Amino acid sequence: MNRSAGILMSVTSLPSKYGIGCFSREAYDFVDWLADAGQTYWQILPLGPTSYGGADDSPYQAFSAFAGNPYLICLEDLIAEGVLTQEECDAVDFGSGNVDYDKLHEHRWALLRKAYERSNISQDPAYQQFLAENNWWLSDYALFMALKGWFGDSGWTTWPEDIRLRYGYALDYYRRELYFDIEFQQYMQYKFFQQWLKLKAYANEKHIKIVGDIPIYVSPDSSDVWAHPELFQLDENNTPTAVAGCPPDAFSADGQMWGNPLYRWDYHKATGYSWWISRLWQSFRLYDAVRIDHFRGFDEYFSIPNGSPTALNGHWEQGPGMDLFNAVKSSLGDKEFIAEDLGLMTDTVRQLVRDSGFPNMKVLQFGFDLGDIGAANDYLPHNYEPNCVVYSGTHDNETVTGWIQGLSPEMMKLVRDYLRDHTSSDAELYHTVLAETMGTCAKICIIPVQDWLGLDNSARMNQPSTVKKNWRWRMAAGSLTKEVQDEVLTLTKRYGRFNWDTIEKKEEA
């Protein structure tokens, strides 16, 4: 078994120009940096098209399970193509520092529309080939997004009945009426896939694998639910009869209401799980490995009657289990998955993880947050099994430095006793935490870039159950210094996680 390591950073966090990290030169530079640091993986957050601010632009609530986020299209590439000018892009106020989604929505779409109108894209044979190869999802998605614009960015459940329920004459009417808006959406997907697949190919040439991330559920306001209501637990008006969430626990007395429509697993089974196989086929087109968020939902999922004020009335229902993953393997072969099994664990969930063979997740912070440092604590390194992926923290956690800063004196002593470090200052203790993470028996170790940089919670990516402040952090240009790279490289070599393929590639060159 090859031990390996990687870094977690959203594409949006790159220090690209024009307001958000994207598929720009900075992304290629980051791949080079990873290779020189001996890393094997770049784990990213979902790449789907996000909302317009109402849902905090969460990548876990995308408008499509198949499309890409146009915000990630590199404007410099469009300047090089001659469809935008540098003066036009430089004149736009995208804000400074972290991502300002309101400004992106106001200005970036306008620039992309200019690029489309100047592109003469319909005459491009490669574009026509892209349409032919992706029509199975792109046709519905492009119409859905054009309709959202037509109806003032409103959710599809508020549209007139004829198009909300997809009457044939209404589909024909809007496809004619919104022809150029539809083509604009198709153009943006063409540029997204063109640029991303080029970047992924570059990473793979450097022997860096991309770890993608897909939510188990889709957004209620998505082309997937609008175009394929048969896949979900909806009534005759295509309104969800039940929604996803989680039951009350120590952190939430009323539980959590996520609001995502639940799957009709009986229908999926009857179709041989064709939609899921298509979704995962698309995912492995974009990524080398896939982390599946909320993996436990495939064993049992929490169902809450739609309209309930809280999750208190919810109940557990049976998921598809290994039947789904056997079908996926039969169609797609052996693929590299990571099972996100955090949260409430049961014996049946543990068994599903074992049966799948997928490595599951361990988060070092949880080892101490649970308050039990004995054999019952799955998140402390002495209880790990090799077939897992260890994280110092995830996008949902505090940064390691922020976590350390918030430790009580009693918890600080427990942490220092476990780490055998009573000499480092509080400000430097994160180095010891990262060394402990890298030294575990886990076959893969992923560390968020914020933790390598020793940043506090001002660099936190997401704080669950909060809005209007998440998914915005961006790394300052010049942060990934040679000193940081040397620390990453030293620990990667020390704990046997070095990617020797990168050395072989350099020798070949």
Core attributes:
single chain, four-stranded antiparallel β-sheet, alpha/beta, 12 strands, 42% helix, 20 helices, 509 residues, eight-stranded parallel β-sheet
Q: Can you offer a commentary on this structure?
A:
The chain is of the alpha/beta class. The protein has a domain at 228-358. The model has no long low-confidence stretch (mean pLDDT 94). Helices cover 42% and strands 11% of the residues. It has helices at residues 25-36, 75-81, 86-90, 101-119, 125-150, 161-164, 168-177, 179-205, 223-227, 265-270, 274-286, 322-332, 347-356, 364-369, 400-405, 409-419, 429-438, 449-452, 482-494, 500-508, and strands at residues 4-8, 41-43, 209-214, 242-246, 256-261, 289-292, 300-305, 315-318, 336-339, 360-363, 388-391, 444-448. Helix 14 links the parallel strand 10 (360-363) and strand 11. The longest helix is centred in the middle third of the chain and has 27 residues, at 179-205.
